[in-house]
Amino acid sequence: MTDRYAVIGNPISHSKSPLIHAAFARQTHQAMQYDALLSPLDGFQAITRHFQEHGGKGLNVTVPFKLEAHQLATRLTDRAANAQAVNTLKFEQEEILGDNTDGAGLVRDIECNLGVPLINKRILLMGAGGAARGVILPILLQQPLLLTITNRTPEKARALKQQFSPHGDLMASDYGMLRDRQFDIIINATSASLNDALPELFPGLFERTMLVYDMMYGSELTRFLRYAQQHGAPRLADGLGMLVEQAAESFFVWRGIRPETQPVIAMLKSSN
Ligand code: NDP
After folding, report:
1. Nearest ligand 1 atom, CA 127
2. What three-state secondary structure class fits 105?
């Protein structure tokens, strides 16, 4: 019997998850099938239940369904409960386990693949949506000196500061108040790059950084990374490594095996 998995989202045709999981399955000799499911915006629950009832073992959940997946889960891991967003569902008899592997994926990409430890760093996280929520606790667990969250709608950044303050040194800031601040690592967790837009930045922000990271990825530098490069950022990274690392973490949740990520990252880079 081949176990069935899929990624569900809207839109979904651009997703690289089927390629990534097919590569993991080949590498680890797992008999599994992994598809992409396009869900109507009001159809997430129905499609997910249909998939489960027809033998599906697990789903990756992407934009815009991570909050609905959080509500649908009957049991949550700690990291999903803290993020209040779910990107991985595992179906076990009647139970639906909800997990969030985005944060583990980001931390592993920055620390292991890019070789930049987060400990004692001044980190700026831009954005307060589902992706940002998922990475705050995993970043704080690495003991940065200070994590500053900034967002276009500042109340959302303040709410996240409130929620996560018990776990580490956190600050919420408006974009306009970043002018006199310095950061070692800047992470763009906004969806601005999806629309080729830029958050409200000022050029000097990037001059003394050691790494500027955009969670978005593509065949070319995102507008955000181009802007950072033009304004002195010495090192840039996009979210392709995070994508593969979060997928590997989901694969581990489902199959109990940790696949090698380096060959898969290399394959995706060479096919770009
Ligand atoms: P959400 O829709 O949940 O959140 C979007 C965030 O971006 C909000 O904070 C919003 O601010 C902010 N934003 C949108 N447009 C702008 C703009 N023009 N200027 C400033 N801020 C803006 O999206 P997600 O959090 O789910 O995803 C964010 C990004 O992360 C996407 O690009 C996604 O592709 C990427 N991602 C990558 C992953 C990977 O593995 N590489 C995994 C998960 C996500 P406001 O609150 O004011 O609306």
Report:
1. 9
2. helix
First to last CA, the chain: 34
Q: What is the pLDDT of residues 98-136, one digit of tens each?
A: 999 999 999 999 999 999 999 999 999 999 998 999 999
CATH 3.40.50.10860 fits 3-100, yes or no: yes
Q: Which of 35, 90, 41, 93 is nearest to 67 (CA)?
A: 41
Domain boundaries, the chain: 3-100, 103-240
Query: Any catalytic annotation for residue 90?
Result: no
The label of the residue with tokens 């950061």 reads 183
User: In this structure, which residue's CA is closest to atom 11 in ligand 1?
Assistant: 152
Q: Cα–Cα distance between 242 and 130 in angstroms, integer?
A: 15
Q: What is the pLDDT of residue 180?
A: 84
Question: Does the domain at residues 103-240 carry the CATH identifier 3.90.1210.10?
Answer: no
In the predicted structure, residue 196 carries a pLDDT above the cut 90: no
Residue 52 has pLDDT above 80, yes or no: yes
103-240 has the same fold as 3-100: yes
CA 131 / ligand 1 centre spacing (Å)? 7
What's the whole-model pTM score? 0.96
* Ligand 1 neighbours by CB, cut-off 6 Å: 63, 102, 105, 127-132, 151-153, 156, 189-194, 197, 199, 215-217, 239, 242-243, 246
Catalytic residue (one of 66, 90, 121, 161): 66
Closest by CA to 130, choosing from 180, 75, 69, is: 69
Question: Position 109: which residue type?
Answer: D
Can you tell me which residue has the tokens 């080729």?
196
- Which amino acid type is present at position 248? A
